[in-house]
Amino acid sequence: MSFFARLREAAGPDWTAYVEHSFVRQMQDGTLPQAAFRHYLVQDYLFLIQFARAYALAIYKSPTLGDMRHALAGVKAILDMEMDLHVELCAGWGLSREDLEKAREERQTMAYTRFVLDAGGQGDLLDLLVALAPCVLGYAEIGARLAKTPSGSDPQNPYARWISEYASEAYQDVASGFAAWMDRLAADYETPARKARLEHLFRQASVLEADFWQMGLDGA
């Protein structure tokens, strides 16, 4: 069993509550209020800024040059590609770059992103990746699952592009690479004494991800 699979299993209902949240189910069947999705998109843009900082922290926390290069690739992918792609997606929903940049961070956005940065600041690279994993790997799981459903794969579904983005081979490869990176680090740095802390970090991050979905719904 992979390190991620063990964390996922240990998280139990908290993981399920995140990946099967009402926000996700409503995206799947196309019934999610568009105002909720717009609110989510704005906050997700602000989240990406902090996500880039987390990958920058990963460079500093990296024990090897190979880890540093892996983390640097993550920073470049976010700043050079993902941010622009997100702006393009938002434009399709009537949101300009100016709308995104002047938005205020909701407390749920701050709660998760600062939790991740704190986990990395206090711990090592493995702690940081475990705190990031629900986002990176959860979106891959959600996208792949929704894309396999008739409503999720329907081009008429207003959320089809979001679903296809995270179900895409490109994103699934990113997620697989991230999981493999965690596996390598866990092989070297996971100990029985750390098991409970790592599981707690992953579980708490999953709860905060579910709160992020709920923030989208509450903003409708």
Automatic annotation (TrEMBL):
Gene3D superfamilies: Heme oxygenase-like
Protein origin, superkingdom: Bacteria
Family the UniProt entry places it in: Belongs to the TenA family.
A GO CC term attached to the entry: cytosol
Lineage, uppermost ranks: Bacteria, Pseudomonadati, Pseudomonadota, Alphaproteobacteria, Hyphomicrobiales
Repressor as UniProt keyword: no
Functional summary from the UniProt entry: Catalyzes an amino-pyrimidine hydrolysis reaction at the C5' of the pyrimidine moiety of thiamine compounds, a reaction that is part of a thiamine salvage pathway.
Keywords: Hydrolase, Thiamine biosynthesis
The enzyme's E.C. designation: 3.5.99.2
The species this protein was found in: Pannonibacter phragmitetus
Name of one Pfam family that matches: TENA_THI-4
GO terms, molecular function: thiaminase activity
InterPro entries: Haem_Oase-like_multi-hlx (IPR016084), Thiaminase-2/PQQC (IPR004305), Thiaminase_II (IPR027574), Thiamine_Salvage_TenA (IPR050967)
Domain Thiaminase-2/PQQC: residue ranges: 13-218
GO BP term (any one): thiamine diphosphate biosynthetic process
Pathway connected to this protein: Cofactor biosynthesis; thiamine diphosphate biosynthesis
Catalytic activity: thiamine + H2O = 5-(2-hydroxyethyl)-4-methylthiazole + 4-amino-5-hydroxymethyl-2-methylpyrimidine + H(+); 4-amino-5-aminomethyl-2-methylpyrimidine + H2O = 4-amino-5-hydroxymethyl-2-methylpyrimidine + NH4(+)
Protein's name in the database: Aminopyrimidine aminohydrolase
